[in-house]
Amino acid sequence: MAQQRKTGLGKGLSALLNDTDEVVKQTAASQQSTAVGIGKDVPPGSISQIKIDAIEVNPFQPRTDFDAEALNELADSIKLQGLIQPITVRKMGNGNYQLISGERRLRASRIAGLTEIPAYIRTANDQQMLEMALIENIQRENLNAIEVALSFQRMIDECNLKQEELGDRVSKNRSTVTNYLRLLKLPPAIQASIRDGKLSMGHARALINVADVDKQLYIFQEIIEKGLSVRKVEELVRLVNDSTYKNKAKPDTKEKPLSFEFQKIQDDLASKFSTKVKLNVKSKGGKGTIEIPFMSEDDLSRILELLDW
């Protein structure tokens, strides 16, 4: 009986290897025949070789930043190994296709000099296109927290989803979604540091618990200059919030809102100095003042350096 099992296993393995060889041959033949008949109708859901020149970029692609070095590395890999993971497109008519996902692979394939590329053919309307592109973007391993937050916000705004529905789509609980969305309320300088990897998600989660922008920017500078750990930042946030509660000032009198032009100048100055800048403009004569607060002597020195003082 043991001998029969051994023989049976050997036959099964041999058959499997033969079947695999046959599948490879059939796949190669299929791709070759598809490449020859590019202009013909391709059934949705299939994998086919399609001309790169026939693919237009997905207008709903949320990602705009592509690392040139990483693209060139992928292009070198494609030259050696070919494109292992097909892109996903939808058919538009007249032999043209629109990219649903895989723009990085498409760009690298162009750099590698490919004229044709393997692709999944799908049928999708604009709503589905946006959702698929955003979800694929969110699922990338090297996505930074700001890119995730922006993708979440787009899904809410453009796909008309509630936070609970968004959580279901991306397999994350509501609190996680909420924490990412709160990052978009941080000052531009802090968001840029999160995007560039200078600030971790742990640091960012601590900072979003500080309501005052001046204090957020002060703590941010402390993190950058002193390399504070997440735990130290959380302790500093507790101290700042406790101090704010004890020394709560009376609410400021309501001021006339700035015009769009002056508001933009104020925001640009706040980003430049990494602190909240206040622009006071008089209603007549175009006169006014600029207030740049500082939180410590070191913070003042930093601002003076930016002013070339």
TrEMBL record:
GO terms for biological process: chromosome segregation; positive regulation of sporulation resulting in formation of a cellular spore. Residues 48-138 form the ParB-like N-terminal domain. The keyword DNA-binding applies. It comes from the Bacteria. This is ParB-like partition protein. GO terms for molecular function: DNA binding. Belongs to the ParB family. It holds the Pfam family ParB_C.
